[in-house]
Amino acid sequence: MNNMIILPIILPTVAALVMIILRNKIKLHRVLSLVALLSVMAVSVIIISKIRKDGIMSLQLGGWEAPFGVSMVADMFAAILVLVTSVVSICCLIYAFSSIGREREEYYFYPLFLILITGVNGSFLTGDIFNLFVCFEVMLVASYVLISLGGTRAQLRESIKYILINVISSFLFLVAIAYLYAITGTLNLAHLSYRIAEVGQDGLMTTVAILFLIVFSLKAGLFLFFWLPGSYSAPPTAIAAIFAALLTKVGMYAIIRIFTLVFYHEPEVTHLFIGILSAITMLLGAIGAVAFRDIQKVMTYNVVVGVGFILAGLASYSIVGLTGSFYYLVHDMIIKSLIFLLGGTIIHLTGTSKLDKISGLIRLHPALGWMFFIAALSLSGIPPLSGFLGKIFITEGTFTATYYWLGAIGLLTSLMVLYSILKVFMSVFWGYTDLTLDREKGSTKGRMLPIALLTVLTIGLGLGVEGIHEYMDIAVEVLMNPTVYVEAVIGK
User: In whole angstroms, how large is the CA radius of gyration of the chain?
Assistant: First the structure.
C-alpha cells in the first residue's frame, strides 16, 4: 500500500512522456493531462485517508532501508498539499484549454505543465534533502521553459532574471547540502533530525541553517522577492496562475519542513530571523500592492504579502501559529490561482492591465464581478471565507510567542491588502463604461468554469472548516513533534 506514495510523481511523468512522443495530438494532450491530474487527486485522497487511519506512510526505494536509500514520506502535511496542488492545477489546466493558444500547445505546453507538477509533488513527498534539490530542479527547469514559451519581449526579459536568480540559489543549495553532509554524514531528513537532536545544534549548524534559509527565501520570495513581480506578470494567465499558486509555496514548504524537523533547536536565532524577514516581506509587499494601479502588479505584490504572513506563523513556533500557517498556506494556493485567473480574464476582455483605463465591467459581466468581490474578501481574510481562520491563528500565535510587533504588522498589512484588492474591484467593475460586448478584446468562453470552481472552493474551505480541522491537527502535531516523523521513517 505504501507504494502509492510514488504515484503522484509517476502519473504526471508518464503522461508527459507519452505526450512528448505524440507531439501533434493536441486533443489527446488535453485529455491525458486532465486524466493524469484527476488520477493524482484521487490517489492523494486515498493517501490522506490511510494516513488518518494508520499514521505516516514511508517508502524506501530499491529496498534500501533508511537512511541509506532514497526515502519517500507522506505525512498529513505533505499529502494535503499534494491534494490541493492537484485541484489547483486542474483548474489552471482547464483555463489553459481556451486561453493558452495553439502555438504554445504544439510546443509542449501540456508535457511541461505536468513535469512542473511532478517536481512540486516530488518536493512535498521526498524524505531526503538531496532529492528535494532534484525535485526543485525538475520543477524549475519546466518553469524556465514555461515562462519563456511564446517568446514575447517581456517574457524573454523576465525569464533571464528568473533563471539567473534560480541558478544562483540552486548553487547555494548545493553548497548548503555539502556542508550539512560534511557535518552529519547523512542527507535523510529523518536521520538528520535524529543526528542533530543527538549532538545538539551548535553555532556552525545554526550558520548552515541560515544558509538554507537564504536558499529557500530566494525560491519562496521571502524578503528576496525582487525577481517575483516581473516574472509572474510576464507569462500567459494560466502559467502565471500556476506559478503564483505553487512555486513560492514549495519554497515555503521547504522552510517549514526544515525548520520544524531539522533546525528547530535554536528558535531564538533561526525562527526570530524568519519572523524579521516575514515582517519586512509583508510590509514591502503591501506597499507595492497599494502603490501600483496595475492589475498584474497588485496581484504579484499580494503574492509577496502571503509569503510573509504564512511564515510569521512558523516564526512563532507554536501549535496555534503553525496551525494558522497551514490553514493559510492551503487557502493561499487556492486564492492566488483564483485572483490571477480573474485578473487575466479582465485583461483579456479589456486589452489592458491599467486600472485607470477600465471601469464598469460588472454591467457586462456581473458573475465575473461578484466572483472577484468574493475572492477579494477571501484574500483579505474576511469571515467566513477561507483566509479568515488562518489569519486569526497566525496572529494569535505571534502574540503567544510575545512577537506583538509581528502580529501587529500582519494585521496592518491585511488592511493594506484589503484596500489594494478593493481598489481593483472598484476601478474595474464600478462606474460608467462605454465598452460593449462587440468592442471587447476577447470573451469569457471556456474561462468561467475554473474560476467558478475555485470560488466555490474558497467559500467551502471557509464554511466547512470543521470538516478539515482534524486533518490539520494531525499535520501540525507531526510538525511540532518531529520524533513522530523520525520513528515512522527510521524507527528511532
Answer: 21
Tell me how far apart the alpha carbons of residues 326 and 372 are, in angstroms, rounded to a whole number.
Answer: 24
Residues 6+ apart with CB under 8 A from 70: 60, 61, 62, 64, 128, 131
Judge if the upstream peptide bond of residue 384 is cis by omega within 30 degrees of 0.
yes
Mapping DSSP onto H, E and C, the string for 74-85 reads ECHHHHHHHHHH
238 - beta bridge partners?
none
Cis peptide before 67 (omega within 30 of 0): yes
Cell of 114: 505536468
**CA–CA dist 376, 378 (Å, integer):** 5
- C-alpha cell belonging to residue 199: 549532538
* Grid cell digits, residue 267: 528558535
**Beta-bridge mates of residue 294:** 354
Chain centroid to CA 141: how far?
17
The mean pLDDT value for 99-125 works out to: 94
Q: Kindly list the domain boundaries of the chain, sorted by start residue.
A: 2-490
User: CA nearest 138: which of 108, 164, 170, 110?
Assistant: 170
Element spanning 146, H or E: helix 129-148
Quote the Cα angle for 278-189-281, to 5°: 10
Q: What is the pTM of this model?
A: 0.95
159-172 pLDDT, tens digit per residue, is: 999 999 999 999 99
